[in-house]
Amino acid sequence: MTRTDLETEGLDRLLQLVVVLNADLAQRLAADGLTESRAHVLWVLQQHGPQTQRALADALRVTPRNITGLIDGLVSTGFVTRESHPHDRRATLVSFTEQGRRTAAALEQEQHQFTGILFGGMPRAKVEAFVDTLGDILGRLQEQGLSL
Amino acid sequence: MTRTDLETEGLDRLLQLVVVLNADLAQRLAADGLTESRAHVLWVLQQHGPQTQRALADALRVTPRNITGLIDGLVSTGFVTRESHPHDRRATLVSFTEQGRRTAAALEQEQHQFTGILFGGMPRAKVEAFVDTLGDILGRLQEQGLSL
DNA sequence: TATTGTTATACTCTATAACTATA
DNA sequence: TATAGTTATAGAGTATAACAATA
């Protein structure tokens, strides 16, 4: 196999993995009545606690108008509430409901268990090499201006 | 680093890679006036030649109604045309315009060059190990019923 | 004057259901 | 009777622009 064919095979598998992981994520979330965007909101709340819509807009890198719609959806499906901000009457604080808190915790748990599917029983050295190469590739992409 | 931490780090980097690759793809396509879904149509045409909308619906795994909308968009932006099917007057054949053909070929070319960013200058053994592990992981996912 | 979130409007992707034309 | 593609309708994500309330 030529070097070029090898690299092409690598990109193909990487793109295939992207598609499969995305599809699986969307399906799991749909089972909980969530979309990827709404789950992203829950993720931020889980990591950083109650947030203003402005902060959520910055975190998700979408417009404030978009956040209004996402929170509308999460409120109507019972995952979060809008609370008044204690010090700024312009702002609202988005907080978990009990259902939201449970769901976010369960998703975090599921992600953790997912590592077992990916790496379970794989020789440690192989996992280490894989993680190292991923870091290498992410670094290359960052040099191209591609990062989070 | 514990085995668990290592695996968590691996999943984190994988998910980060998914996000970065998706964002970059969307941005490149937008520069050409394309969305991911519309580009997917061009991709199928590039690989298999002119197709009926029905065949495109099957290939993209979306409803026929959805294909109507995607082709409407691709026609109005000049990437494809609807031609009458030679043997079945119910069906339409979707074909490239010259612009569509050029764009699809350029995208294929760009993807090929992208391998240089990902793997260029990396020791062959390292690339081989990475591609091997990707295949391993895709196999594990397939065992879980997760595949294309 | 600047910021927070909303209303108004528009585009894209997605789906189901009913329908037309054709096989 | 079955298939190809459309119209009708609806929900979700995204954006810009104008606006109200508040800082």
List keywords for this structure.
DNA-binding, 148 residues, homodimer
Question: Can you characterise this structure?
Answer:
- 2 copies of one chain form a homodimer.
- The first copy, chain A, has a 3-stranded antiparallel sheet.
- Chain A has helices at 3-31, 36-48, 53-60, 64-76, 98-119, 124-143; strands spanning 51-52, 80-84, 92-96.
- The mean pLDDT of chain A is 97.
- In chain A, helix 2 (36-48) crosses helix 5.
- Chain A is elongated.
- The first copy, chain A, is mainly alpha-helical and 148 residues long.
- The interface between A and B is large, with 49 and 49 residues.
- Chain B binds a DNA duplex (23 and 23 nucleotides) through residues 35-38, 52-54, 57, 62-70, 73, 85, 88-92.
